Amino acid sequence: MNATINRKLMAAGSILFFMGLITGFVIPLFENSRMGLAGHLEGVMNGTFLLAVGAVWGHLILSARLQAIAFWLLLYGTYANWLFVLAAAIFGTSEMTPIAGVGYKGLPWQETIVTLGLMTVGVTMVVGCAILVIGFVRHRKIS
């Protein structure tokens, strides 16, 4: 199972990295180009993160269940981060991104979507990374 998750994470990371690069080409088209730049960076950085996690996945000491939970949390968190930052760029929202959103204000439903989306990203990434930390600091039992 490790090798399967390993390859899936690296493939997902490569795809997200690529989507981040493509996002960089369309930055001027966004309502808020500063958030468009943030979306570009989120795609590139989160793609790199997934590639790195995939590369070291075999060193985790976790049950199959915790591996699956970490996999899905990290996959959701990285892609949703890119997606909701792009949504903020498209809508011009600012409640969750007050620095990059200065001078912009989305409609209430747009602000709600971005706010809820980025809140889920925060929770899933913290929990997913906490599972990674546990998996990396555990020691194998010597038989």
SSE order and pairing:
Blueprint: H1 2-25, H2 33-56, H3 64-91, H4 108-137
Number of helices: 4
Mean pLDDT: 93
Roughly what fraction of the amino acids lie in strands? under 5%
Distance between the termini: 22 Å
**Overall tally of structural domains:** 1
Fraction of residues in H or I helices = over 70%
Shape: elongated
Radius of gyration: 17 Å
Element pattern in H and E:
HHHH
As an assembly, this protein is: single chain
Number of strands: 0
The parts where pLDDT drops under 50 for at least 5 residues are none
Helix-strand category:
mainly alpha
Largest sheet: none
Characterization of the model:
- The chain is an all-alpha fold.
- The chain has one domain (2-137).
- The protein is 74% helix and 0% strand.
- The protein has 4 helices and no strands.
- Helix 1 (2-25) runs parallel beside helix 3 (64-91).
- The protein starts with a helix and ends in a 6-residue tail after the last helix.
Short summary:
Helix content is 74%, strand content 0%.
Brief descriptors of the model:
143 residues; mainly alpha; 4 helices; 0% strand
